[in-house]
Amino acid sequence: MSPIRTVCWSPIWNKHHERTGLEHLVLTKSTADSVILAIDEDDTAFRLNYHLRWAQSGCLLEADLVLVKGRSERSMGLRADGKGPWKHADGQHIPELDGCIDVDIWPTPFTNSFPIWRTPLTIGQQEAFRVAWIDGTALTVEAKSQAYSRLAEHLYLFESLDGSGFQAELSLDEDGLVLDYPDLFQRVDA
Predict the structure, then answer these.
(1) Against a cut of 0.90, is the pTM above it?
(2) Burial letters for 131-155: b for 16+ Cβ neighbours within 10 Å, e otherwise?
């Protein structure tokens, strides 16, 4: 399928290298291909490529990531059936991710769209989700609980339910993609 949308974000989380880097995402009806170039908090430049594929229902089916950081290159592949079980690309089951439907990749605001697309909320409504959270700067994955509350037509409150107290108000465009993620990412007109 030909690309239907290109979106770019600037990373602003690293205060020593604010706005150094870019995410370039090519989005189709059921896939996302992205490259992120940035400098991590440890002052190491990295490139993260990810490819995602999902079902018509919005449930993730495949996540393939390649991280180049320093002099090393690592990759990770995950497979899901949209009902909760997850496997590595080689078919090995990942029991700690059972029950996760969505994926959340750090450092991109794109994956915040999956729960919003899949579960339409009315203004004032909140929903909790269990996600496969991928640290793209280390290529690790773990289950995490998160919640989204719809505050207005294009404004959601994201909350991490891991005890950290992290929350952020996310402004979205008409397609449910993040425009502004305070202190972390900002959309760049492309």
Answers:
(1) yes
(2) bbbbebbeeebebbebbbbbbeeee
